[in-house]
Amino acid sequence: MSNPNVQPLAQDFVIAAQVPDPVRFFFHDPDLTRLDDGTLLLAAPQWNRPGWDHSRRLRLLRSDDGGLTWVELPGLPYEEATPFVLDGQLLMFVQEKCHKDFLVVASDNRGESWSDPQTVIEGPIWNISTSRVLRPEALYWAMDYDLPGHGHGGKTMLRLDRSMSPLDPGAWALSNIVRQPEIPAAMTRNLFPEGDRPQLSGGWRDPLVWLEPNTVEVRGRIRAFCRCVFDEYAAAHIAAVFDYDPDSRQLNFTQFAAWPGAQCKFYIIHDRSASMYWMLSNLITNSQDLLGWAERMRETGYHGGPGNERRWLYLHYGIDCLNWFPAGCVARWPDNVYRSFMYPSAVVDGDDIVVLSRTSRDSGDQHDADLCTIHRIRDFRSLAMDLHAGGLH
Q1: What is the rounded distance in angstroms from the CA atom of residue 345 to the CA atom of residue 355?
Q2: What percent of the chain has pLDDT over 90?
Q3: Displacement of CA 106 from its chain's centroid (Å)
Q4: Half-sphere exposure in the Cβ direction for 175 (13 Å, CA)
Q5: Measured over all CA atoms, what is the biggest interatomic distance in the chain, rounded to whole angstroms?
Q6: Distance of CA 225 to the CA centre of its chain
Q7: Is residue 297 within 8 Å of 285, Cβ to Cβ?
């Protein structure tokens, strides 16, 4: 019998999009959505690498056969995009400039063309392909809110009133802004302080950066979980937890919590039919460089600290969206730390999960991806034990 932690669940992939030249271009934050008729739509922001004078643009691709083949649609002049379906309407959050204002566009022909952008929220907000909560009265989506001198420093909850048009700015509102807490001294060894990183290439300025929150509902409670980069990835697998009160419309930081792969971007799926949550994230091998790789990483231009490894993409499951069981490896690059399957987004397609990966194969950089790849995890519910059995009711 095959072991899903040794033999990946979806190593064979389809290339949905590829940059024209990996020396000059990379994909930033692609996202995948599924239309009500089963059509898959992929939005892939294509950015130029530093030193190359090219305009950033959004590439759009569509599949009518479950992700086996893809047709490229007319592109758009946006730096970021997250498509989603709401009440039968195909919408897309877009940004003409990253981290500036929340714009919405709509399509009535499966992404062939889009309406003019409507600015619904002004401000330094941002998020990418992360989960959202849909209730009868509203859509909720936690966002990054940049604070002076601290990109990603704040968090806020975006609320869309479903009784109004999503193109109406009056339908959208932000909660309070939650500021980043001070890091307890015991949570970091300060191995890679900013300004003293002789063994690292680049990196974050702050000792803690939290970003890219997922929003979920757990037994009626709206929560958000975001990625945390502690000490340039040296303290891995820690997420920040937030709770949101829809009555007072207040968001609060609750705690830090253990979370497999939370040093990098993760993605949560709420499988309501089975009362289960599924989560995709990257596991790593050498976050504090106990194996002595860092000097070689610096010489070869590895992006960030040793813990910024993105070559092992894993699937996890749980019933409280806080504690996770391993379901298996989705895909891997076992021989090369400069390759990656990362920044996943995913949709449930019948009994399968279709995963979009921002993938580095030939870019020479585990961060700047040259591919968007599609992975189908078949019969995913069979990978989970019945965690509900034997509990207290």
Answers
A1: 6
A2: 83
A3: 22
A4: 26
A5: 61
A6: 11
A7: no
| Gap between the Cα atoms of 124 and 316, Å rounded | 32
381 exposed, middle or buried (CB, 10 Å; 0-12, 13-18, 19+)? middle
Task: Take residue 117 and report the two structure tokens written for it.
Answer: 């952008």
Instruction: Give strand pairing partners of 83.
Output: 92
- Cα separation, 96 vs 115, in Å, equals 14
Q: Which helix (H) or strand (E) holds 298?
A: helix 294-299
Contact between 137 and 119 under an 8 Å Cβ cutoff? The reply is no
CA distances, 154 to each of 94, 177, 195, 262 (Å): 20, 6, 23, 18
Asked whether 32 and 41 are in contact (CB, 8 A), the reply is yes
pLDDT (tens digit per residue) in 241-270: 999 999 999 999 999 999 999 999 999 999
Q: Which of 96-100, 159-163, 191-195, 347-351 shows the lowest per-residue confidence on average (mean pLDDT)? A: 191-195
259-330-289 Cα angle (round to 5): 55
pTM across the whole model: 0.97
295, containing H or E segment? helix 294-299
CB 97 within 8 A of CB 80: no
Q: What are the phi and psi torsion angles at 383 (to 5°)? A: -80, -10
Distance, CA of 189 to CA of 318 (rounded, Å)? 30
- Among 368, 376, 266, 387, smallest CA distance to 49 is for 368
In single-letter form, the type of residue at position 354 comes to V
Q: How many residues does the chain have?
A: 393
Quick check: 61 and 72 in contact, CB under 8 A?
Answer: yes
Place of tokens 């004078």: 53
Question: Residue 306 has which token pair?
Answer: 């040793």
Report how far residue 180's alpha carbon sits from residue 240's, in angstroms, rounded to the nearest whole number: 10
Q: What single letter denotes the amino acid at residue 255?
A: Q
Is residue 8 within 8 A of residue 377, CB to CB? The reply is no
Q: pLDDT tens digits, residue range 35-85?
A: 999 999 999 999 998 877 778 999 999 999 999 999 999 999 999 999 999
Please name every residue paired with 221 in a beta bridge, in sequence order, or none if there are none. 218
Q: List Cβ neighbours of 111 (8 Å cut-off, separation of 6 or more).
A: 41, 60, 62, 73, 83, 90
- 351, 334 Cβ separation under 8 angstroms: no
Q: Are 215 and 111 in contact (CB under 8 A)?
A: no
